[in-house]
Every structure is written in structure tokens, then in C-alpha cells.
């Protein structure tokens, strides 16, 4: 049975999870690229990512590229499943009874 | 926390908008630039060999080298935004295939006798990588590899008079695949 996930349901986090779930398995997106794509600020995106990471929905990797720190974000299998279940639960809410 | 039907409707609309926007952004990272680049490189190299293989062999090599440099530039730019994890086993398979193809065969078995044979052989070697990649990652590269290999073999064995024309067509297959990847493939 699909369940609503109130961690994901926050509007910005919905957008983040929706965007990340479009990546193929093993792909990661750059923090700045994601921030620009979603139109969020550094702090805002960082806070939402921390919330999602705490639930193991996303993985955040930091590494140095050309001596500069870069942060890459990927969705985890648990995150994909939770997001899919949340979407299914939303659709169920709209289904005619 | 209660979620009303209006909330659910709005959330699903937001999800769809974000999904479409990200999918559009991702499409620009799916390899079509490499297919376009190498399709064009291939067409130019084939045309040069067709015109006068002996005279233009260095020019054709220079075009290939330019393609390699451009590939690195594209790869570096794309890696800054969306990065795939490198599959070390796949990279090893590619290295073994290329090592065998470009070192073992030419050095220990005498290599190839003509520009046609050399170009056809090199094409088939790279297409083996496409086929392996297509099987490994379960994607369109399998069909690109098979189609191009079939054209090259047909040109070499069945209609040698059309060999260079068919290799140019191989380049066009890559360019066409690039359009497919860019506009239709997930």
C-alpha cells in the first residue's frame, strides 16, 4: 500500500526528488547545477538536501575537481522507492472513489 | 497533517513540471554530442580516404586527433554538471579490446594490407565497443554497433566499389543516432 511521505511532500523537496529521480542509476548531479535548475539558494537547497540525506533518500558526495570542492547529489534506491510510493499515494487521493 | 485533493493535485503538477524540466536538461548530457562529433569526424575521414587515401592520410589522422581532443573537452564540461560513476569492469573490457585490436593484431600478425582494410578493421574494432556497451548498459549503442558493422562488412566483402560511400553512410548513422538520443531517447 502506497503511503504519503511528509518528508518528501514539502514543495521544494518534491521538486528535488522529482528532478533527481530522472537521473539514471549511478548518475550524480552537481549541487550548483541543481540549485540553478530549481531556482533555490545555496542555503535553502543545502537544508533540504540535509533533510533528505538524513532519511537516506539521497547521497551527497564531496570531492575536489581541479582543486575546487564540488558537491554531487544522487538519489538512493530507498529514495526512489519512497518517492514512487508518495506519487502513487497522491494519485490515489485523486482517484474517484 | 492532512493533504487535500487540491494539495495533491498541485503537488503532482509540481512533480511533473520538475520532471519535464530535469529530463530536458539531462537530454543534453546523454551522449548525442559525441555521436554527432564522431559521425562528422567519420564522414570527413572517409571522404578524405575516398578522395586520395595516400595523399590525405595525415589530414585524416589530424581530423581523428581533433575528434579525440573535442571529446575530452565535451566530457570535461559535461562532468561538471552531471557525472556518471565509472564502471571499471567496462573500462577494462574496452582496454582489452582496443589493446588487442591496435597492438596484438598489427604487431604480431602483420597488420593490414590497404587503407580500405585498415579503415574497415578500425571501424569494426570500435563498433565492437559499441556493441559491448549496448549489451552492458542495455541501450541503443548495440543497434548502432550492429548496423555500422553490417555496412562496413557489406562494403568490404560484397560491394567493394561502394566501400567508402558506405563508410560515409556509417558516419551518417552515428549522426542520426545522435538526433534520436537527443530528441527521443529517455
Judging by the overall fold, what is the CATH architecture of chain A?
Orthogonal Bundle
Low-confidence parts of chain B, pLDDT < 50 over ≥5 residues?
A: none
Instruction: Report the portion of residues of chain A in β strands.
Output: 15-25%
**Could you say which overall geometry of chain A the principal axes of the C-alpha atoms support?**
elongated
User: Can you give the mean pLDDT of chain A?
Assistant: 90
Summing up helix and strand content along with how strands pair, one would put the structural category of chain B as mainly alpha
Q: How do the SSEs of chain A run, as a string of H and E?
A: HEHHEEH
- Counting DSSP E segments of at least 2 residues, the number of strands of chain B comes to 1
CATH fold name of chain A: Arc Repressor Mutant, subunit A
**Proportion of helical residues of chain A:** 40-55%
Largest beta-sheet characterization of chain A:
3 strands, antiparallel
Assembly form of the protein: heterodimer
Question: What is the mean predicted local confidence, pLDDT of chain B?
Answer: 88
The most extensive contact between chains is: A-B, 29 and 25 residues
Radius of gyration of chain A: 14 Å
Structural class of chain A: alpha+beta
Distance separating the two termini of chain A: 16 Å
Amino acid at each position: 500500500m502506497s503511503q504519503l511521505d511528509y518528508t518528501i511532500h514539502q514543495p521544494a523537496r518534491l521538486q528535488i526528488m522529482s528532478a533527481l529521480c530522472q537521473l539514471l542509476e549511478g548518475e550524480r548531479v552537481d549541487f550548483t547545477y541543481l540549485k540553478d535548475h530549481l531556482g533555490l539558494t545555496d542555503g535553502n537547497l543545502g537544508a533540504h538536501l540535509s533533510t533528505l540525506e538524513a532519511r537516506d533518500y539521497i547521497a551527497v558526495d564531496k570531492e575536489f575537481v581541479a582543486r575546487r570542492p564540488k558537491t554531487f547529489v544522487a538519489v538512493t534506491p530507498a529514495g526512489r522507492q519512497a518517492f514512487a510510493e508518495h506519487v502513487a499515494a497522491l494519485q490515489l487521493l485523486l482517484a474517484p472513489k | 497533517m492532512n493533504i487535500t485533493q487540491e494539495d495533491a493535485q498541485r503537488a503532482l503538477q509540481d512533480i511533473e513540471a520538475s520532471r519535464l524540466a530535469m529530463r530536458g536538461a539531462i537530454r543534453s548530457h546523454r551522449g548525442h554530442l559525441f555521436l554527432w562529433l564522431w559521425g562528422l569526424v567519420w564522414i570527413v575521414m572517409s571522404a578524405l580516404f575516398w578522395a586520395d587515401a595516400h595523399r590525405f592520410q595525415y589530414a585524416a589522422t589530424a581530423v581523428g586527433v581533433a575528434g579525440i581532443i573535442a571529446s575530452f573537452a565535451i566530457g570535461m564540461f559535461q562532468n561538471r554538471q552531471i557525472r556518471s560513476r565509472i564502471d571499471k569492469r567496462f573500462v577494462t573490457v574496452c582496454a582489452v579490446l582496443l589493446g588487442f585490436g591496435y597492438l596484438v593484431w598489427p604487431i604480431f600478425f602483420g597488420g593490414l594490407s590497404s587503407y580500405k582494410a585498415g579503415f574497415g578493421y578500425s571501424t569494426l574494432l570500435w563498433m565492437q565497443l559499441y556493441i559491448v556497451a549496448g549489451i552492458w548498459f542495455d541501450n541503443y549503442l548495440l543497434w548502432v554497433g550492429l548496423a555500422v558493422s553490417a555496412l562496413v562488412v557489406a562494403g568490404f566483402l560484397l560491394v567493394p566499389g561502394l566501400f567508402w560511400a558506405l563508410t560515409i553512410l556509417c558516419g551518417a548513422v552515428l549522426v542520426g543516432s545522435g538526433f534520436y538520443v537527443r530528441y527521443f531517447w529517455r
